[in-house]
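It is worth pausing here to work through a concrete case rather than discussing structure prediction in the abstract. The textbook approach is simple: state the sequence, then state the predicted structure, then interpret. We follow exactly that order.
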Amino acid sequence: MHGQEFTGNTAEFLIQEENVMQRYWMEIKPVQGNLLAHRQFGITAFNQEDALAILRSRIGVEFDVIQCNEGIDVSTLDKAHVLPNIGNVFPRGIWFPSGY
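Step two, the predicted structure:
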């Protein structure tokens, strides 16, 4: 179906590859000299490149990615610290920490 024209079927539209978003859990390290309060982020994006673009546009400092997990199940994240502090995980954007 990838690359085919949309025929009007809502179910078909929802399963097209380019419309499926994933949840990412990223651990980053700021480049030397940059201060950053948070080093772990939860992001919903179309792909890893999109997730990195969202993160770069929101935090405003250079960073190196230490770890990037795609398709993260939010229920497996830290129940004491992360889960109480997440935003909406469904729309495209940063959901942990909330406020970005």
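Step three, interpretation. The radius of gyration is 15 Å. The mean pLDDT is 83.
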